[in-house]
Amino acid sequence: MNKGIVNVDISKGIIDKNIYGQFAEHLGRCIYEGLWVGEDSDIPNTNGIRNDVLQALKDLSIPVLRWPGGCFADEYHWKDGVGPRADRKRMVNTHWGGLVENNHFGTHEFMKLCELLETEPYINGNVGSGSVQEMSEWVEYMTFDGESPMANWRKANGQEKPWKVKYFGVGNENWGCGGHMRPEYYADLYRRFQTYVRHYGDNRIFKIAGGANVDDYNWTEVMMRESTHLMDGLSLHYYVHPGGFWAKGDAVRFDEQEWRVSMQKAYHIEELINKHSTIMDKYDPDKRIAMIVDEWGAWYDVEPGTNPGFLYQQNTVRDAVIAGISLNIFNNHNDRIKMANIAQMVNVIQAMVLTEGDQMILTPTYHVFKMFKVHQNAERIALDLDVNKLEIDGNQYPQVNGSASKQQDGTVNISLTNADIDNEAVIQLELRGLTVANLSGEIITSSKMNDRNTFDNPNKVQPLPFKQFNRSGESVQVTLPPMSVVMLTAKD
Ligand code: AHR
């Protein structure tokens, strides 16, 4: 039997709300169609941003949003995306589908989106094909409050007051699409570029260096050795591709073997976090530098018949469980992980919402993010689990994972997942120090592993009340159905 202890009196620090961050790239139908329809669209919108998507995303309380890429960031020239829209330069989006990018969604539109979502902007600058001057001027344009060429230009473009920009990424995947650099070379470039990412007035920028791909520990070693004193965060990217990068597997038409491989690969991120953290600890024992997992998620082959460069995929209950596992792992590493950004927010990879014309559906992953938002900025409390192991291809992974936190009003939330496709997971949980009386639950699950929401059946997978638990005194026995994500809430 699985068992565990929740100890409300043992604090493990705050779970940074930014772990529930999102990522929106100029890729496929994420920005255009998914978010931006333009002010003249028949689709109801606010300043060109579609209202249905906006409202759905607002309900997630998204703390931080990364933009404009991804690979796109290192070929994006921000000056092409400001000023009157009709005059903006058209460019080819070479990474993603080779389509014409009309630059109608630029800095002002992104900042408006952040304002409407009440989210913190995280801008990713261009190192791969940009210049130091270009990056420096972007920061000046956005944040300088005074008389300067860039600030004057911003004002002429309709934004009198500077915006607040806290998070700034200096390049993206510079080991790959961001320039195919060696870590030594990028470390030097990082040092140079970040010098000109200025703190204007009281706008303090949190500088994020481009980090490793998956298990490239040498990259982390070199970056930490060479640039620790000049960065605030170091990124890490990891995707779950059940079939590997080149034949990732289908998002919907998969078998039980693929389900199990997906779960095992979702759990694998914990090993990466541990090993990269060990290197970071060597150079930064006080954990000043944050690990920023600014791209993560399950990435499959595109939906049949869609543009291969658009990365449009469906989202099933498998994705809900992957999201639950990952978020629990991030919560449990809150000492080092201060931000994570799932890829991506709309219509791309493991999306929150999917759109088709004027229609929108919420994905199972969306429901997990909504369910888990109670952990944002809550105090993590000790949860020790001793659980059964599952196995695929000689690799073991836990049947159950979880994390627990306490909100300011004393409400305790325990999130649990069951990765097992066949068996329920019975867990005996000791509840130490839990004074609040009422226990309730919510669950995301479905009877078939590839159940999903579609435009014809938009609520096939959605949160439902969960009652399969029995409390007696200081313990509770919980029965998690196969393939499920559960939130238990204790409050008065
Ligand atoms: O999220 C899709 C792409 O994956 C990003 O543009 C890139 O950074 C990563 O390889």
Can you walk me through this structure?
It is a single chain. The chain is α/β, with parallel strands linked by helices. It folds into two domains: 2-8 and 381-491, Sandwich (Immunoglobulin-like), CATH 2.60.40.1180; 16-376, Glycosidases (TIM Barrel). The chain is 24% helix and 29% strand. The protein contains nine helices and 26 strands. It has helices spanning 51-58, 107-117, 132-143, 149-156, 183-195, 217-227, 256-283, 317-332, 364-372; strands spanning 2-14, 21-23, 45-46, 49-50, 64-67, 91-93, 99-101, 120-125, 167-170, 206-213, 233-240, 290-298, 337-343, 353-356, 359-362, 379-386, 389-392, 395-398, 400-406, 412-418, 425-432, 438-444, 464-465, 469-472, 475-480, 484-491. The strands form six sheets. The chain has a ten-stranded mixed beta sheet, covered by helices on one side. A hairpin with a 2-residue loop joins strand 3 (45-46) and strand 4 (49-50). Helix 5 (183-195) runs parallel beside helix 6. The two termini are 29 Å apart. Alpha-L-arabinofuranose is lined by residues 25, 69-71, 172-173, 295, 343-344, 349.
